[in-house]
Amino acid sequence: MENSNKTNTLNGKGQSMTLRGYYKSLPEPTFPKRDFIQEIATKCNVTLTTANNWIKYGIKPNNPEHVRILSEITGIPAENLWID
């Protein structure tokens, strides 16, 4: 038999929880690496591919403003972003 004490009401107000309501109440998933790449692409106004290339393949941006933004986002000094 199913335990009737499971949370199946909204905020204890006696309203029944629906499947849609349950789904909407779940926390949003987080994807820190994807979100980080998206943030870089957005703030530097470049494609996701370009941001990926900077991060994953060690390609340095030609634009010094992009280097400054990357340094600002990460807190890593610009001269240390691509130390081999």
Mean pLDDT: 87
Q: Give start-end ranges of low-pLDDT stretches.
A: 1-5
Helical residue percent?
A: 40-55%
- In percent terms, what proportion of residues is strand? under 5%
Would you report the number of β strands?
A: 2
Strand order of the largest sheet: 1-2
Q: Tally the helices: what do you get? A: 4
Radius of gyration: 22 Å
Overall 3D form? elongated
Give me the strand/helix succession.
Answer: EEHHHH
Structural class: mainly alpha
Tell me about the largest β-sheet: 2 strands, antiparallel
What separation lies between the terminal Cα atoms? 61 Å
Short structural summary:
The protein is mainly α and 84 residues long. The chain has 4 helices and 2 strands.
Describe this structure in words.
With 84 residues, the chain is mainly α. It has helices spanning 19-25, 32-44, 48-56, 64-74, and strands spanning 9-10, 15-16. α2 packs across α3 (48-56). The longest helix is centred in the middle third of the chain and has 13 residues, at 32-44. It is elongated and about 60 Å long. The N and C termini lie far apart (61 Å).
